[in-house]
Structures are given as structure tokens and as C-alpha cells.
């Protein structure tokens, strides 16, 4: 049967034919262009090519690069882009600030375009970065140079609702992400698959490949096709064969443009170090900032707690330069906000952890100060790389404690880092110890923060890999505590040798997946596991099917994680299980070993009083005992099994089975009807009682209010009590009314739970009378 073609509405047949012809001509022209471009790429010879315009690029990419004022190629771009365009796997290494981002983003756009990638093809390229800030920055560059293309690209970094990203992910062609969030989507986003993936890019590859991200990255890789192009970039590139084997690279090209250079850091970067005793570091930093009020400065510290403490205290000392702080425990909105502020600022000081050590391209940073020594030379190189970017000048200052000097300088020298020693001018140094002690005295929260900062610092030293350079016994800890404004060093117990890599690995693993990581893999490990005390919470987070892991449980895991931060291997001595703080009892308890309870034949270690109570509860005991059988008693008090079969002869005598069934159904229906009426009556009665009870309560409350009688014992009262306590307490000791208001505005102020904790610690210390005050003042002066 011949097919009848209906002409398009309102258009003559000839016009349609013309359109079709134009379309097919256009398609033909596009195909020809693509073929020509492909040929140019394959035959491209990078020798003597200096400009982006010399590269075989699509009109779209070339135009966007031009509009963004990228004309000349940097060394790494000149060498890496042509290879990546040809589809080769590339290991790119070049100094910080030398333009590696464009070296991998340009081929991503080009290769997908040449493969005629469309929305229907799904995710074609994945760009993974170790931090959210860096991922955001990469995404911004992608938007700039990809603006003429029609690809859809997305930023997947967490910090907002998973559901918001889930819907969009299915439509994305290029995904820029952090490892944890990506894995979370792989685990929880239904229907998301990467089977079409063409390109995988790891920026700061050595960081993503190190132990910290190992489990996460391995899980990600197992979800990706083996047939793909892989690009790895970093200023401190890995050459480890085992790392590369994990990524199944195919004959990778190692492009290292600065390998033969005399220094591993940018040429225009001036690097200094200063030997400063630990207890004088804050004085020296304060003096340094006072002398550089018009500069843009980044100060690196080894932990979030230190960042917070220095930021809070220095803010109250009114140095005269805008202060900012950034660390991984802030909310994402705060992190984004602070990053944007520092990007735009002309002169300010950003206190930060290593969350901003890599990749971030803050313009015009004058100084990078490392108040705490970096964990290794690679971290040093990345930190100082935040200044002197892309042929600009910059300066870096490293603070070293006397015991760190020899080891650290030797390591830097061996890595080709040119650094010279300088001394602080004595006349310009200012002692701020008394001021800090005053601040801590006035503000219990600040004192608490100082204690945490102290512990975190000691912890950071104790986990350093290079034990010769960082030996904890070499640090004057009492003096350090005093320099933080503390009357005495917080007592630390349980310091033990720790596996640094294990800690890093755990720290970086997405919370929800930590349980998977620790779940027993073999019978042996299972046996080992049995020895541990496993709480209900442990079991919840250890569920294999993470897709059904409720948010609530994940939050619990997260809280534990946050708490464990210090407790992993260091602890402030606090009230022991025996309720006798630091007393002999506690020591005895430790010597005796932990308490054990036998339940259901199993020996369970009890680590807290609460847990003991829980375990001893009737329910637990019943659950642990042998399981009984459920019985049913008849009218004569005879016990029967729940389900008993009737004697067969009796059953046959009672009539045909169908009739019996019918009778049974009718009888049971009647029973249900009666029960239903009874139930309704009961429900009505209960509702009435409830209503009356509520009315009675309302009447009582009204009466109480009228007579001003409020004992404040309702649920809200307890919480309010803490707030009120804070309100009354703070102004009493606070001469500077502004400071409290400022403190309260901070996004990551201690939460209610923390405030409670703070008050508990501080309650003993708050002077109650003149004598107390004098004693405290004498202590401070002493
Ligand atoms: N060809 C170019 N022409 C001009 N500027 C460029 C060029 N390539 C990169 N830049 C600029 O150089 C700066 C550093 O680039 P980029 O952030 O890519 O460096 P990087 O090598 O990735 O540094 P890091 O190792 O710290 O991550 C950016 O501001 C970028 O805009």
C-alpha cells in the first residue's frame, strides 16, 4: 500500500523540499567540517605553536577563549592539549598557577564536540576535584570557555539537597564534582549511569589518589567504563605505578614542563622562613599583620579549631585589616560567601586550613604565611602556590619552631624549594599574651576554643609522618597554652601512635560510606569485629544498602565523626566513667580494665554508665535470653501451640470443607462487626477525655499566668535556661559590649549542645566573689 505524505500545514510542498535540502546540505557541511577537524587534530604538530589560535579547535571554543582574553598558550597547555585532543591519556605536571585548568578543560569540550555529544548521550566527561571551592572554580572556567557550546554542565559538590542535583544529573554532559558527593549520587541516584563516559579528569590528581580518598575513588572507578580517556593534572604529580594501575591508564603520556627547572615553585615567588618558638608564634603573627595592613594575606593553620580561635581572638584585638576565616567544618553557604569576599578584597587576611591550599586562584595575594608547618613538601608547594600565580610576583613566609628547622629546610631543599631565613625585628614585636588571657577570661566560649585549639595543635604534631622533625617532646606545651590565653595546658590523655594514613582515609570518606569501608570483608575480620562493642547505632550505619540509610542515621554518624575528631587519639581528661575526675578511681578503672557484662552468654564490654543501664534494661535482658515459644490457653487453662491442626476425623465429621469455611467466615465477620462498634465507642470516649484534659490544662495555665507563677519546668524551659544563663553571664564579665554581638553572629558558633558543654566546663571557673577575682588577677599577672 502506498504511503501518503501529508504536507505540513500552510506550507507548499516545494518549500518543504527546499528546507529538507538545506538541512541535508547543512548536515553534509557539518560532517565535512568535523572530518576536516578530526584530520587536523590527528596530524597536528605542536612545534613552534604559541597561540590558542594555532590549535585545531572548534569555532565555539576558539571564540570563547578569545573573548576571555586567553591568547597565548602556557607551556603545559602547549604540550598537553594536542595530546589530549588526540585522545591520549595524559599525566600533566606543571608549577602552581601555570594554567593547568585550561589544559584539561579545552580537550574536554573539543573531544565531546567531535564525538557529536548530545543531551541524549548522558554524562560524557567527569572532572573530579578534591575540594568544593576548587570544583566551583573549575566550573566557572568551564562556563567561560564553554559558553558557545550547547553542552549541559553541572556542579556536583554537596552542601545542598541531594534531590536538587539528582533531577539535573540525568541531563548533564559534563559533570564537575568532588569525590564524596559523586559517590553519593552513584549510590543513591536511581538510574544514573556512566556507561557512556568518554573522559575522566582528576585535578590535583596526587591528592585524589592518596590514601585519604582511596576508598572513595576506588568505588567511583568501579562504576566507570574501562574504555575511556583519562587526564591527571597536578603541580606535584604522582608517578606511582600502583596509582596509575588503579586508573587503568593506557600508555599515558607524562607531560612535565618544569621538571628540569631549578625550582619547583614559581620563579617570581620569594620564600622566607622564620624560626619562632611555639609560644611566640601568635605574638609574631600579630606583629606581622600589624605591619602589613594594606596587603592581601593568607595564613595557613593545621586545624579548624586553630583557625577559629585565631580568627575570633584577633578580631577582638582590632588589628586594622579585615579578617576572614575558612575551614572545612563551615556551612557551604558560609564557605562560598567567604571565598567570594576574599576573591574580591584588595587587602584582607584569610585564616584557613588546607581546604584552600590547592588550586584556588585568588588574584593578587601578596603573602602566604604558614603559621603551622605543612605536613609535607607537596603541601608546602601548593600552599605557597596561592601567590605568584601566572607570572605575577608574591611572597611566602614559613614559621618554624626551633626543633623543626633542620628537618624542614632539608626536605624543602631536596624538593628544589629555594627558601631563605629571616628574623623578625625585635622592636616591631608586640606581646599579646595578656590580651589573649583577658579575652579568654572574659569569654568562656573563647577559653573553650583555646583549649580545643591547643589539643588540635598537639594532635596535628603527633600525627606528622616525619617524627624526627616533629617530635612532640620538643615543644614547650605549657608555654604554648599560656600564649593561647589559657592558665594551664589542658590535660591530654591517651596520646598514642596513630596511623596517619588511616586517619586521613577515614576523614575523607563520605560519612555514609564509612560503614561500608569498615564492614567485615572476610570471616577473619568478622571475628575481630565481634570482639568490639557494637551499638545499635553502629549497626544502623553499617547497613550494606546505603540507599536506604536514612538521613537521620547519617547525621548521627556525622556527629560521631565530628566528636571523634579529637577523641580518636587525644582527649581532654574529663569526668571518668566512675564520676571521679582524674582521681585515683579513674586510674584504677583503667588498670582494672573496662567493665564487662555477660548477656545471653556473651561478654560485652561496658564503656559508659549509660550503656550499662541500657544493657541492663529488662528489654535487653529478655532479648538476650533464650527465645520462648508462644502458647495459647483454652477455656480450661490447657496450653496449645499457636497454630494447631484439628484432628482429621473430627474435621470430616463436621461436614464439607467449603461449608465449614463459609460458616467460619460468617462467624468471624460477626465478631469483627461487634469489635468494631466497641472500638469506635472506646475511641470516642478517649477523644472526649483528651479534650477535657486539654481544657483543664489550659485553665490551669491561664490561672498560673494570671498569678505570675512560672516554675519554668516545661520542655522549652530547660533550653531557655541555657540562653538566659548566657545572657546574664556574658555582660557581667564583658566590658566590650560589641564583642558579644559579633560573636553571636558567627555562623558556626557552638550549638546548644556545645553551649551546655561550655557552661559545664566554665561553671567552676567563674569567679563568684572578690577573693576569686583577686586570685584570678594574681594568676594572670603571675
Ligand atoms: N593561556 C593563558 N593566558 C593567560 N592567562 C592564563 C592562561 N592560562 C591560565 N591563565 C590564568 O592563570 C591563572 C592560573 O591558572 P590555573 O588556575 O589553571 O593554574 P593551575 O596550574 O591549575 O594552578 P594550581 O596548580 O595552583 O592549581 C588563572 O588566573 C588563569 O586565568
TrEMBL record:
One GO MF term attached to the UniProt entry: RNA helicase activity
UniProt keyword annotations, A-Z: ATP-binding, Helicase, Hydrolase, Nucleotide-binding, Nucleus, Ribosome biogenesis, RNA-binding, rRNA processing
Annotated Basic and acidic residues bias: 1-11, 660-684, 726-750
KW NADP (keyword) present: no
Enzyme Commission number(s) from the entry: 3.6.4.13
Catalytic activity: ATP + H2O = ADP + phosphate + H(+)
Region of interest: Disordered: 1-29, 511-597, 652-769
Enzyme class, spelled out: hydrolase
UniProt keyword Nucleotide-binding present: yes
Family as reported in the entry's similarity comment: Belongs to the DEAD box helicase family.
Free-text domain note: The Q motif is unique to and characteristic of the DEAD box family of RNA helicases and controls ATP binding and hydrolysis.
Protein name as it appears in the record: ATP-dependent RNA helicase
Amino acid at each position: 500500500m502506498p504511503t501518503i505524505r501529508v504536507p505540513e500545514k500552510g506550507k507548499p510542498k516545494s518549500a518543504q523540499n527546499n528546507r529538507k535540502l538545506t538541512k541535508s546540505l547543512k548536515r553534509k557541511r557539518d560532517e565535512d567540517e568535523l572530518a576536516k577537524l578530526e584530520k587536523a587534530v590527528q596530524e597536528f604538530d605542536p612545534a613552534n605553536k604559541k597561540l590558542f589560535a594555532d590549535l585545531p579547535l572548534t569555532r565555539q571554543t576558539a571564540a570563547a577563549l578569545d573573548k576571555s582574553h586567553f591568547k597565548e598558550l602556557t607551556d603545559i597547555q602547549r604540550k598537553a592539549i594536542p595530546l589530549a585532543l588526540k585522545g591520549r591519556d595524559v599525566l600533566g605536571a606543571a608549577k602552581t598557577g601555570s594554567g593547568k585548568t585550561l589544559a584539561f578543560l579545552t580537550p574536554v569540550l573539543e573531544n565531546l564536540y567531535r564525538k557529536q555529544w548530545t543531551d541524549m548521550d548522558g554524562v560524557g566527561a567527569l572532572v573530579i576535584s578534591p575540594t568544593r571551592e576548587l570544583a566551583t572554580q573549575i566550573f566557572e572556567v568551564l562556563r567561560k570557555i564553554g559558553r558557545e557550546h550547547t553542552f549541559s554542565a553541572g556542579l556536583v559538590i554537596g552542601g545542598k539537597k541531594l534531590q536538587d542535583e539528582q533531577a539535573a544529573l540525568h541531563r548533564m554532559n559534563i559533570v564537575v564534582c568532588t569525590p564524596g558527593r559523586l559517590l553519593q549520587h552513584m549510590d543513591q541516584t536511581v538510574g544514573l549511569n556512566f556507561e557512556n563516559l568518554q573522559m575522566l579528569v582528576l585535578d590535583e590528581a596526587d591528592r585524589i589518589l592518596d590514601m585519604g580518598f582511596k576508598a572513595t575513588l576506588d568505588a567511583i572507578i568501579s562504576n566507570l567504563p574501562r574504555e575511556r580517556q583519562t587526564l591527571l593534572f597536578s603541580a606535584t604529580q604522582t608517578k606511582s605505578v600502583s596509582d596509575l594501575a588503579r586508573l587503568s591508564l593506557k600508555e599515558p603520556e607524562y607531560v612535565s614542563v618544569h621538571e628540569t627547572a631549578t625550582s619547583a615553585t614559581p620563579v617570581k615567588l620569594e620564600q622566607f622562613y622564620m624560626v619562632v618558638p611555639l609560644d611566640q608564634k601568635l605574638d609574631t603573627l600579630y606583629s606581622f599583620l600589624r605591619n602589613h595592613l594594606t596587603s592581601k594575606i593568607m595564613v595557613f593553620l593545621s586545624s579548624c579549631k586553630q583557625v577559629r580561635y585565631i580568627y575570633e581572638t584577633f578580631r577582638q584585638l582590632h588589628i586594622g585589616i579585615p579578617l576572614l576565616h575558612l575551614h572545612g567544618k563551615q556551612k557551604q553557604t558560609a564557605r562560598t560567601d567567604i571565598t567570594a569576599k576574599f576573591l574580591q578584597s584588595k587587602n584582607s587576611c584569610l585564616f584557613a586550613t588546607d581546604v584552600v591550599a590547592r588550586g584556588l586562584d585568588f588574584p593578587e595575594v601578596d603573602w602566604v604565611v604558614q603559621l603551622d608547618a605543612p605536613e609535607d613538601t607537596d603541601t608546602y608547594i601548593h600552599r605557597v602556590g596561592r601567590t605568584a600565580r601566572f607570572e605575577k610576583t608574591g611572597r611566602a613566609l614559613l614559621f618554624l619552631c626551633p626543633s623543626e628547622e633542620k628537618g624542614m629546610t632539608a626536605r624543602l631543599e631536596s624538593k628544589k624549594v629555594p627558601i631563605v631565613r629571616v628574623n623578625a625585628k625585635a622592636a616591631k614585636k608586640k606581646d599579646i599574651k595578656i590580651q589573649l588571657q583577658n579575652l579568654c577570661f572574659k569569654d568562656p566560649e573563647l577559653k573553650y576554643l583555646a583549649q580545643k585549639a591547643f589539643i588540635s595543635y598537639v594532635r596535628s604534631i603527633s600525627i606528622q609522618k616525619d617524627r624526627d622533625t616533629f617530635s612532640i617532646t620538643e615543644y614547650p606545651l605549657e608555654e604554648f597554652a599560656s600564649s593561647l590565653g589559657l592558665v594551664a595546658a589542658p590535660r591530654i590523655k591517651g596520646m598514642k601512635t596513630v596511623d596517619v594514613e588511616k586517619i586521613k582515609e577515614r576523614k575523607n570518606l563520605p560519612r555514609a560510606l564509612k560503614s561500608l569501608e569498615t564492614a567485615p570483608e572476610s570471616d577473619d575480620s568478622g571475628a575481630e569485629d565481634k570482639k568490639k562493642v557494637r551499638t545499635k547505632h553502629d549497626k544502623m550505619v553499617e547497613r550494606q544498602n546505603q540507599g536506604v540509610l536514612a538521613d537521620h542515621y547519617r547525621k548521627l554518624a556525622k556527629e560521631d565523626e565530628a566528636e571523634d575528631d579529637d577523641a580518636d587519639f587525644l582527649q581532654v581528661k574529663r569526668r571518668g566513667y566512675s564520676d571521679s575526675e582524674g582521681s585515683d578511681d579513674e586510674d584504677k578503672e583503667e588498670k582494672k580494665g573496662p567493665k564487662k557484662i555477660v548477656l545471653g552468654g556473651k561478654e560485652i564490654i561496658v564503656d559508659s554508665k549509660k550503656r550499662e543501664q541500657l544493657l541492663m534494661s529488662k528489654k535487653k535482658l529478655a532479648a538476650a535470653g533464650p527465645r520462648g515459644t508462644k502458647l495459647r490457653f483454652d477455656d480450661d487453662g490447657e496450653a496449645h501451640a499457636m497454630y494447631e491442626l484439628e484432628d482429621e476425623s473430627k474435621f470430616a465429621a463436621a461436614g464439607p470443607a467449603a461449608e465449614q469455611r463459609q460458616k467460619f467466615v460468617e462467624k468471624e465477620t460477626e465478631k469483627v462487626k461487634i469489635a468494631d462498634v466497641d472500638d469506635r465507642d472506646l475511641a470516642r470516649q478517649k477523644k472526649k477525655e483528651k479534650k477535657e484534659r486539654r481544657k483543664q490544662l489550659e485553665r490551669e495555665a491561664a490561672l498560673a499566668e494570671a498569678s505570675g507563677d512560672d516554675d519554668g519546668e516545661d520542655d522549652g524551659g530547660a533550653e531557655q535556661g541555657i540562653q538566659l544563663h548566657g545572657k546574664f553571664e556574658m555582660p557581667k564579665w564583658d566590658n566590650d559590649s560589641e564583642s558579644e554581638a559579633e560573636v553571636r553572629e558567627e555562623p558556626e558558633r557552638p550549638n546548644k549542645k556545645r553551649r551546655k558543654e561550655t557552661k559545664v566546663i566554665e561553671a567552676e571557673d567563674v569567679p563568684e566573689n572578690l577573693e576569686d577575682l583577686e586570685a584570678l588577677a594574681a594568676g594572670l599577672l603571675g
